[in-house]
């Protein structure tokens, strides 16, 4: 297995970026675009997933990374809830809702799996690698 040198190499970050772009693009259309507060809220929540993955990675500490992955996982739940609201307001179609909801559900599960892996590993991260 190769060493991950930058957060952009993480599959969970790559998926989060693609999903954030889908949210951004869809929220530029019709009534969704006109609901400024809600549009900004769902964009911020979807963007915070990739941002928290990046910030946690850059802290160079396994425990801090796990903490920020928890924030990212929480933001997945926030976006899933907001997708319900977008569907209820008819800002998005049922098909788009299902596609994105399932994608965020898988991303959340992948983040949880990565957290589990990090909890089981003895790797400390760059910040603490030389400490006993």
UniProtKB/TrEMBL annotation:
Keywords: Ribonucleoprotein, Ribosomal protein
Superkingdom, natural source: Bacteria
GO cellular component, one term: ribosome
Keyword check for Mitochondrion: no
PANTHER family, per the entry: FOUR HELIX BUNDLE PROTEIN
The protein's name: 30S ribosomal protein S23
Source organism phylogeny: Bacteria, Pseudomonadati, Bacteroidota, Chitinophagia, Chitinophagales
């Amino acid at each position: 297995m190769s060493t991950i040198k930058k957060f952009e190499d993480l599959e969970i970050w790559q998926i989060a970026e693609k999903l954030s772009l889908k949210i951004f693009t869809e929220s530029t259309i019709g009534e969704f675009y006109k609901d400024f507060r809600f549009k900004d809220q769902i964009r911020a929540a979807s963007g915070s997933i990739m941002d928290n993955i990046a910030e946690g990675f850059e802290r160079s500490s396994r425990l801090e990374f796990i903490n920020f992955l928890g924030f990212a996982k929480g933001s997945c739940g926030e976006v899933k809830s907001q997708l319900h609201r977008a569907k209820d307001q008819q800002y998005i179609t049922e098909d788009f809702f299902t596609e994105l909801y399932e994608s965020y559900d898988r991303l959340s599960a992948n983040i949880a799996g990565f957290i589990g892996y990090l909890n089981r590993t003895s790797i400390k991260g760059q910040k603490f690698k030389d400490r006993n």
